[in-house]
Amino acid sequence: MLKVLNPGFYTTIQDAGRFGFREYGVPVSGVMDSYSSQFANALLGNSDDAAVLEMTMIGGSFQFYTPILIAISGAIMSPKLNDEHVRQHTIIQIRANDILSFGRATNGFRTYLAVKGGLKSDNTLGSQSQYTPITKANVIFKDDILEYSKYSDSFKKVNASVKFNDSVFKSNILEAYKGPEFDQFSESQKQLLLSDEFEVSKLNNRMAYQLEPLLTNSLKPILTSPVLPGTVQLTPSGQLIVLMRDCQTTGGYPRILQLTEKAINRLSQRTTQSCVKFRLKV
Amino acid sequence: MEYNLKFLRYNERSILIEWPAIIDENVLKSILNFKKRIQNKYIKQKVDIINAYSSILIIYDFTIDNLNDEILALKLLYEDEKSFYEIKSKIWEIPVCYDKEFGFDLEQFSKYKELSKSEVIELHTKPVYKVYFIGFLPGFLYLGGLDFKLFLDRKSTPNLNIKRGSVAIGGKQTGIYPQDSPGGWHVIGKTPIKLFDINQSPPCVIQSGDSMKFVSVDKSEYLNIEELIAKSSFQLNPVL
User: Could you tell me which residue ranges the Carboxyltransferase domain spans (chain A) (predicted)?
Assistant: First the structure.
């Protein structure tokens, strides 16, 4: 087990998400940047849906009471093990009482800490992902105790090297499908949407990212319809809203684009004031 | 009950199926019927389905390699009358206390509408409402059937904390807040019933396609039911 010495700015337990309950209005949740979290899980031989810690902007510090193997992926938060710098995207061996600490993200926004076998925590409606009121808390707190499996020596290190594709941080291109209401847009609006750069507003979280500036909008609201993470909505005032992993299941604003999974991961690593561009997937 | 459906790709793993964009009980029946048939077809795979007023979104747990094949399979399933499924819908009675303590906007609401409080309660408890779907928040029921005499635009400034169980009117809709949340609807009463409970399976006892009525109860009965629920000795049963 490990103890949370400092939770960081906004740290949550996440797995691949809560499937099978969207017909009851339950958001899917799950890791924001699935590429990075899967990378960390894969290094440890975990399944894609093993639960990890998702740290946002500023990481936390954690004391491990029992030995385990871990891996770190996503944004670089200058991780230190007992005050010594450690590398990301590699397997790190943890001994009893080691302290792992993180600072501020330098090249992205979200960092993943995976442990061998996945974190053990309450499973609610088929998932460990934190989302209130489905789970009691929506973040971890100082002094929380998190459980993980016993370390067994039988783990065989995989020597094949896997390269982390850092386009998740470097590219600002968001690939998207046409949304169901895309064709109600005029040609000039489409042009604008697909050629201009948009800036991530300070209103960005696990539920949605708002983008600036406003667009002129002549589209009418629609009859409340399904939405997904990655759905780009346009409000009557011209606000572009990109729904993210904790988004509601239905919405009444026109859905003009739908980001690919890769684009959702890229946007998850963007912070306030960074620029993005949409490109239609062909 | 045959509609001309539109099938379109939503993302790598999802297909959207659209009915005519209207709020209509026959469209609802067609949607729920098709949803059931899709769920039966994909019983072994994990498939998530979101249904709304006039559309269904199918989310597969695999990437769709051949969109046309997948859409063709869905079209054939829709046209296959032998797989037609009879939807059994239930009727529920939801106890609501319209006392000032719970329905703190009722007085103001009646004034706006130039009705007495008892007229508002009568108009609100009279219809049999249709549950079109569940969305927005876990357990939030989209109900059809509100009397037009009770239509009122939502408040310009939302309340920051509306309590779970609050029964409210916003625009042309009435609904029940399934959890504490901010909200701009006019709160006219409160039910002790939990519409969404993670300890139940499924977590929503009331389903899309069901019908429900609000039944006015006084405060002592409200408190009585609330106590029984706290002791887990209350079971909401359908009246039909």
Answer: 23-282
